[in-house]
Amino acid sequence: MKIKSILIVAVAAIGFTACSDAWLEEYKLDQNRPSEVTMAVLLPSAQAGCGMLQGDVLPRLTSIFMQQMTGTDRQSLAHNRYAQIGEGDFNTPWNGSYAGSLYDLQLIMDMAEEQDAPAYSGVAKVMTAKALGILTDHFGDIPYSEAFQGAGNMKPAFDSQEDIYTSIFTLLDEAQADLASPSTLSPGSDDLIHGGDLAAWSAMADALRARYLNHLSKTSLYNAADVIAACDDALNAGAYSTIGFDAALNQNPWYQFTVIDRAGYISQFGTMYDMMEGSSDPRIDLYRSADSLTLPVYGAATSPLPIVTPYELHFIKAEAQMMNGDATAARSSLEDAIESHMTWLGVDAASITTYVDSLSATTDLELIMNEKYVAMFTLTESWTDWRRTGFPTLSAPADANLSAIPRRLPYPEGEYLYNADNVPMPIDATPDEKFGATSTYRLWWDM
User: Fold this and answer.
1) Which DSSP string do the residues of 200-249 spell out, in sequence order?
2) Is the separation of the CB atoms in 207 and 234 below 8 Å?
3) What CA–CA distance (Å, rounded) separates 9 from 293?
4) If pLDDT is split at 50, 70 and 90, which confidence band does 31 have?
5) So what's the pLDDT on residue 250?
6) Which domains, and CATH codes, for the chain?
7) Which of 12-21, 119-128, 348-357, 382-391 has the lowest mean pLDDT?
8) Are 406 and 386 a contacting pair, CB within 8 Å?
């Protein structure tokens, strides 16, 4: 009986323990996925996510729209005529932003306020402004004011694009104020873009302000003098920002696609190359490989992605000066832009001089935008510039699936599945409406 009693107690003890999960507590924490991390851990992750937003799905597709590249195999071949592009194709950049980089940046801003670290907040605000700009320039109205609340609001409203632009300018203003304030903590090696150089981040804010002010050229809010002033601020501050990559672990997204994942899907042919060949452009061999399948300068494993550059600012300034009626100043800025870009690529000085001297003697908006179109290769700014100005002159292919070249992208499939009541475009909109070939759902600044 004594033995039976001991066994009963032992079994009861085991049963009691089995009903408790206290012994599991130390095993619940995944050391590779901590529930709380520092700003120094969040920042590089957010920056890498922003790099993918800028360098992966969106520019690859818009470069085909802009005939800077040509799809030659599988779905990329269909993309030439705007086919096999659906809502599901945009889940990755959208989700990677809202559940990834933008959410991490919001966490940094919240933590920076708690820890009296405006240096981190300033960096996060600049990056948030940039990411919002990319998203709104592709999709139009997007969630922002009600976003990043997690379970507190699973169905955020979409802010109008005009309001998003207001938020971008507010973020840039606040960022520069933060960057100039004393800070208990500041980024260092965790900052993959500027290595903790806060002055460089402030210059980047100036450059982004110039870019987004210039995007308003078709609206009543456009002011050429403000654009020129923003360009001068950024150029005087030495604005230059790139996202770097590592050959082993973190490769350039163009390299990942054209060499590793989808070799042969895209080739380096199209209207842009026809223009370059017609003008004996010395950049051709730097843009495309001998087999025309890869990008020697822009698409090597460690090629940096340009974020803001002096040559873009000179182009923006030239356009604004032209809009302001000063063709002489615009010509000077245009030549500065071309020289800056070719020097950055490594073109020799004699070839730069020969090319600049061969330009049309007539300085007009078409010349400026055609040259910018070539220089902004691999960046979605070329698509934005074409939608704003109509240059370069492009035509949809004869067998296109739409009535015109796309001027916007449809909203991601995930939004229709989980936030359909707020999506500002019905799922049954026509293809022409979804891609902005008609004016029904054109972007605010593209009306």
Assistant:
1) HHHHHHHHHHHHHHHTTTTSTT--HHHHHHHHHHHHHTT--EEE--BTTT
2) yes
3) 74
4) low
5) 86
6) 39-242+257-276+285-394+405-424 (1.25.40.390)
7) 12-21
8) no
Q: Any bridge partners for residue 159, and if so which?
A: 142
Burial of 8 (0-12, 13-18, 19+ CB in 10 A): exposed
- With a CB cutoff of 8 Å and minimum separation 6, the contacts of 19 are none
Mode of pairing for the β-strands spanning 266-267 and 70-71: antiparallel
Continuous segment of H or E residues that includes residue 335: helix 327-345
> pLDDT tens for residues 285-310?
999 999 999 999 999 999 999 999 99
Angle at alpha carbon of residue 227, lines to 221 and 228, rounded to 5°: 145
- Show the tokens assigned to 241: 């920002």
Res. 377 pLDDT band, cuts 50 70 90: very high
Measured CA to CA in angstroms, residue 182 lies from 116, 119, 193, 198, 434 at distances of 9, 8, 21, 11, 47
pLDDT digits (tens, 9 = 90+) for 275-285: 999 999 999 99
Percent of the chain whose pLDDT exceeds 70 = 92
In 336-363, which positions are buried (b, 16+ CB within 10 angstroms) versus exposed (e)? bbbbbbbeebebeeeebeebeeeeeeeb
Secondary structure class of 266 (helix, strand, coil) = strand
Our CA angle for 374, 376, 382, nearest 5°, is: 90
**33 three-state secondary structure:** coil
Look-up: residue for tokens 């070939």?
437
pLDDT at residue 3 greater than cutoff 50: no
- One-letter amino acid at 99 equals A
- 97: tokens are 């932003």
- Kindly state the tokens that stand for 198: 């806060």
Question: What is the structure's pLDDT at 12?
Answer: 42
Q: What does residue 55 show for φ and ψ, rounded to 5 degrees?
A: -115, 5
Residue type (1 letter), 35:
S
184: Cβ–Cβ under 8 A, 6 or more apart, which residues? 115, 116, 117
Write out the two tokens for 6: 């001991």
d(CA 167, CA 170): 5
Cβ contact 39:117 at 8 Å? yes
